[in-house]
Specification:
The complex is a heterodimer of chains A (147) and B (406).
Chain A (H helix, E strand, L loop, with lengths): L3 H6 L2 H8 L12 E7 L4 E10 L2 E10 L2 H14 L4 H15 L27 H20 L1
Antiparallel strand pairs in A: 1-2, 2-3
Helix pairs in contact in A: 2-3, 3-5, 4-5
Chain B lengths: L2 H6 L7 E2 L2 E2 L1 E2 L10 H14 L9 H21 L7 E4 L2 H16 L5 E4 L9 H10 L2 E4 L10 H7 L4 E7 L11 H10 L3 E5 L11 H4 L3 E5 L10 E5 L1 H6 L10 E4 L4 E3 L13 H17 L1 H19 L5 E4 L7 E6 L4 H10 L2 E2 L1 E3 L4 H7 L4 E5 L6 H18 L4
The chains are: A alpha+beta (147), B alpha/beta (406).
Chain lengths: 147, 406
Amino acid sequence: MSFNNLDTLYRQVIMDHYKNPRNRGTVEGDHLTVDMNNPTCGDRIQLQLQVNEGVVEDAKFDGEGCSISMSSASMMTQAIKGQKIEDAVKMSHMFSELMLGNEVDDDSIDLGDIEALQGVAKFPARIKCATLAWKAMEKGVDDEQED
Amino acid sequence: MDIKAVRDAFPILHQEVNGHPLVYLDSSATSQKPVQVIEKLDEYYRGYNSNVHRGVHTLGTRATDEYEGAREKVRRFIHAASTQEIIFTRGTTTAINTVAVSYGRASLSQGDEIVITPMEHHSNIIPWQQLAKATGATLKYMPLQSDGTILLEEAEKTITENTKIVAIAHVSNVLGTINPVKEIAAIAHRNGAVMLVDGAQGAPHLKVDVQELDCDFYAFSGHKMCGPTGIGVLYGKRSLLNEMEPVEFGGEMIDFVNLYDSTWKELPWKFEGGTPIIAGAVGLGAAIDFLNEVGLHEIAEHEHKLVEYAQQQMKTVEGLTIYGPDKRAGLVTFNLADVHPHDLATVLDAEGIAVRAGHHCAQPLMKWLEVSATARASFYLYNTEEDIDRLVQGLQTTKEYFGDVF
């Protein structure tokens, strides 16, 4: 039995993030909190961001969901930590492009592990799982900038 | 029941999904449609598409005859006393909302109680939450036993003289529990309350006799019983419906319109504002003909055998948890070890097997089960033991695939 197709979705690195999530927990000190859920499937995430002078100094998450949503949250928090807010948002837009199956060629930003999620593009039903954490991050940034 | 003939009637089943013959195990979400229904819709649109109750022309008369003929088929299907008691709606949700708004707002006030259970579908929770908020009434939950069944003693305790409405699913879309709605209706009536049965998962699978159940309202959808989407039925006792005000105003439900006041048509049209779902009703009529032809008793027996077989076979899968009682309707809700149900459903889909994963529009029940989501395999007349074998095989495959991860 061949799982070639599934293997494009469930890359080793994704399963590793699911099994050993990075940045799971809560941020100490000043932070903003975003709760987001995917009402169609019940996945939920609480994202905490510590933003100082336009830089994401810390990012942590908690929640429950499938391997794709949770590993995406793990990778995202890893990727945006230490980044300027605008770069984090740029990453999010690049990630959306990846999910649409489009090539991303912006050398100024390194998506790192996140590129492992590009296989999700072939599983339209799962794209919402992958983007949940990113949407939460964008919402947090929006709310922060409105204040 | 000739299973081959039944399966041959469903063209959609004969396809490959991701390189495997399709196994469709999501009929509780929506059932597949036989050619008899598809052709009936085609016939209506090609042959006599026309508005009902208006034109005196030939097509309009034909459309009206077919539409009202479907109403009679529904009446016989659920053994209602009169076609006046059969209201076509968009589906179960609209039917329940109609009762909550029309009957509920006029009849309830502070101090009154509405009784439901934690196993209800969102469509049979939220209309009552809203009604409670609008009227000051209290929403009460009847407790469930640990296997997800209702004990009549608990119903006796929860339903009181303050209870005005009891609303309970005939069959749980998650647990498969078949509820004693007839007995609960009797308790409701002894306390002066009305009883609504959410029949979304009942009508497609069980013989429904609303007079025998003695429920006051029975709501169900066409698309879960081989009919088209967008059509459903609200059954209500004539005496109650006569007292109730329409919820939608305009079109078909009008009798006389004056500048500042109007009157409504008689039942059932009073509740069918606008141009009704004509094709949907005609299609539902064809679905009922089809189900009757196969035989409701045979269908129930077939599903019973399937779900028994499924439970038996699925129990052989190590790490599998099945939720709900042993004696159940034709569905099995489960979780497989630490594999999230979405991941499970994706692997099964890669094998051509369609199951549902998520909260099944029953978030309070997920909380009660202490899980965030579950997977569900639901069966209908066209499923076979081979389908279940494929499912069990798919579950083993899922375990193998994620084996070194979890």
